[in-house]
Design brief:
Mean pLDDT: 91
Distance between the termini: 14 Å
Helix content: 10-25%
Strand order of the largest sheet: 1-7-10-9-8
Number of helices: 4
Number of strands: 10
Shape: elongated
Order of helices and strands: EEHEEEHEEHEEEH
Low-confidence stretches: none
Largest sheet: 5 strands, antiparallel
Amino acid sequence: MPDGVVLAKLPACGLLNLRLPTGATGTPGVGQVIGLGLPETPCTYAAGAGAVVYWLAPGEWLVAVNAGAEGELEVRLRGALDGAGAVVDVSAGYVRYKLRGPAAAELLMKACPYDFDRRTFGPGRCVQTAFAKTTALVAGGEDESFDLAIRRSYADYFERWTADAVSEYSGP
């Protein structure tokens, strides 16, 4: 890809969709099992202790862990939830990418109805949004990059769309 935008596929990881009744973010043990508190502020994520927890909606989070760790974490979360919520392994349903470069935010804004300006969408921010004719979870990185999770069935489309869109950022 041109030097204005670089797209790289990220290694596979474990992804768990976690749902709790609204207002139950303090469910005893869930934060201890994950090693992080659940973000309660919309469109934010928390990272550390080998996990990243993305706020998706009231009462819903996506938990990303190292590949292979999701099975044990799922079992431990089910025990901590004790029937008060749900956890589902969605690892096989997504492909993750890193988008970086000086025109990365501009490229995202070509495809999404969201403002990815780094002054308002920086590290710790995430959003589920439309991306061209699919959807994406987009998270702002510390290095001004963006991590994206795209449904696996749309990964080829996403890669082709992005390759076409970055052509205007290439040099002469």
